[in-house]
Amino acid sequence: MFLSRSNSVNGKLNLGLMGGTFDPIHMGHLVTAEEARQQFDLDYVVFVPSGIPPHKEKEKISLPEHRFLMTSLAVMSNPHFFVSPFEIDCEGPTYTIDTVRHFSCGEREGSEVFFITGADAILEIFTWKDYEDLLRLCTFIAVSRPGYSLDRFRETLGSDCPEMKHKVHLLEIPALAVSSTFIRERVTLGKTIKYLTPEPVEQYIKKHGLYLSGG
Ligand code: ATP
Ligand code: MG
Fold first, then answer.
1. How far apart are CA 7 and CA 73, in angstroms?
2. Residue 169 CA: distances (Å) to CA of 44, 98, 104, 154
3. Which residues does ligand 1 sit against, CB inside 6 Å?
4. Closest ligand 1 atom to Cα of 22
C-alpha cells in the first residue's frame, strides 16, 4: 500500500493504525478513527484486520476475507481511511508489535505512527508482546469506550510509568455503546442492525448469511 506524503506540510506523515478483529466493523470503530484523525492531525488511518487474533484463537471468527471486505466497504467513502491485509497475510498469530514495526520502516521511514485502541485494550497493554519496544516505536491513542473506565489507567500512567505519559494519549470520544458482539447477537436473533454499521456492510452480512447461527 502506497501512502503519499504530499499532503503533509513538512514531508512527515502522521499515520494512524487501528487494529481489531472487525467481525464486523461498526460505527464505534469509524467514529473513533475519525475523531482520532482530526484531533491528532493524522494524514491517514489504516485499519488492520487481524489474522488469527492471539486472544481469540478458540472463538469462532469469520473468515479473514469476509472481515477484510467488510472493512474495505466501510472505509470506502472516507479519503483518509485505508485497509491493510498485513496481519491477514501473515502466517500464524500476529502481534501489535509486528504490525507497528512493519508500518514504521521502509517507505514510511520518518513517519510517526499512532496506534488507536479502545480503553478495554489499553488497560492490558503491559501484557502485550514487547510493549516497551511498542512504546518506543509509536504513540498510543487510547479512546474511551462505554463500560470501560480510563481512570485506573490514568492513575497508573501518572505514578508507576511517568515515561509513558508522553506516549499514551487518552481521548474521550462521543460514547457509542456498540460492539461487534452486539451486532453478531442481533443478526443471530433476526434483529435489525441498521445504522449500527454502514449500509454496504449490512448488505454484505445479509448476502453472505454471516452470524445467522450463534457459533
Ligand atoms: P468484539 O465484540 O468482537 O470484541 P469489538 O466491537 O470490541 O468486537 P474489536 O474488533 O475487538 O471490536 O475492536 C477493535 C478496536 O476498536 C479495539 O481497540 C476496541 O477497543 C475498539 N472499539 C471497538 N468498539 C468501540 C467503540 N464502540 N468505541 C470505541 N472503541 C471501540
Ligand atoms: Mg473487542
1. 24
2. 18, 21, 19, 10
3. 20-23, 28-29, 32, 117-118, 120-121, 143, 145, 176, 178-181
4. 10
Segment 63-113, tens digit of pLDDT: 999 999 999 999 999 999 999 999 999 988 889 999 999 998 755 556 799
C-beta of residue 17 within 8 angstroms of C-beta of residue 108? no
Distance, in Å, from the CA atom of 20 to the CA atom of 74, rounded to the nearest integer, reads: 14
Three-state SS for 48-105 is: EECCCCHHHCCCCCCCHHHHHHHHHHHHCCCCCEEECCHHHHCCCCCCHHHHHHHHCC
Max Cα separation, the chain? 51
Domains of the chain and any CATH numbers: 9-178 (3.40.50.620)
Cα distances from 24 to residues 37, 190, 196, 200, in angstroms, run 21, 16, 10, 12
Residue 188's CB: how many other CB atoms inside 10 A? 14
User: How far does the centroid of ligand 2 lie from the alpha carbon of residue 9, in Å?
Assistant: 35
With 0-12 CB in 10 A as exposed, 13-18 as middle and 19+ as buried, what is 27?
Answer: middle
Which residues on adjacent β-strands are paired with residue 138? 113
pLDDT at 155 over 90: no
Distance between CA 47 and CA 29 in Å, rounded? 9
- pLDDT per residue as tens digits for the range 117-147: 988 788 788 888 998 889 889 999 999 887 7
